[in-house]
Fold each of these.
Amino acid sequence: MTVSYAGDGHASQFDVRKTDAEWQQQLDKQQYKILRKHGTERPFTSPLLKEKRHGVFVCAACGHELFVSETKYESGTGWPSFYQPAAQGAIGTSTDHKLGYARTEVHCARCGGHLGHVFNDGPQPTGLRYCINGAALSFTPRP
């Protein structure tokens, strides 16, 4: 799937559409770099890495529910990791060749924000590791 982002000169396919200037105003510098410019935070820097409470992880840009705490696990990679999204259709994927080889990029299905990547080295039941930038997420505890 080809992903187009608001503000990059292409028609957007996402429900939440904002100009680049609107995203810059809404997001802090790190969130903007990651969510809109496909950046990566330094490993082991996100407070969400050690988040153990029951709750939901949402897109920091649009509030869309992406992952739930029951699917979070410690991968040892330095980024919050999950073995499956909160619901079918919560995320989208595209192919990323920035490192010279193909990787599967993960983005928010509602606003297109870059979240991280998914790899085939995760735990069962899926065998997947959604390696997600903590700055791309917000956490809401649930009772």
Amino acid sequence: MDKFLAFPSSEIAILIEKLKPETPGLWGTMTAQHMLEHLLLPLEFSRGLFSVPLVTPADKVEKVKRIMLMSEAPLKRDFAAPFLGPGLQPLKFETFTKAQEALIKEVEVYIEFWEANPEANFTHPIFGPLNKEEWYLFQRKHFTHHFSQFGLVEF
């Protein structure tokens, strides 16, 4: 898993700060601000702020987790998160800078939460219930995926 960004690391905040509002995506329809706000969602539901329904059939969860999450495989480009619905989501923050600040802060809160609650377990909509290590792995892959989408890292 060395090819994915370290998560958590100080590099995450540095890369978030390098991103510019006008940075185009290399694929997909998200703007830079949409991507920042999109990364917030799984950080929030991975610590139980809200729940998302499991969309993978229960009998397929372990196989999907093994193939997509626990492997060296990157996340697929243009994969539409089934729980979000079609198209771009409305922006939550009035400025790009506020979205950057919110994501940097949420990464810090996420780390604090998992340090205080290492036995927690929350459901991912595709991979089912995940523990701390599995959520960290998902975040590594998810951040790498979207940071490469905007040219912040090569993958």
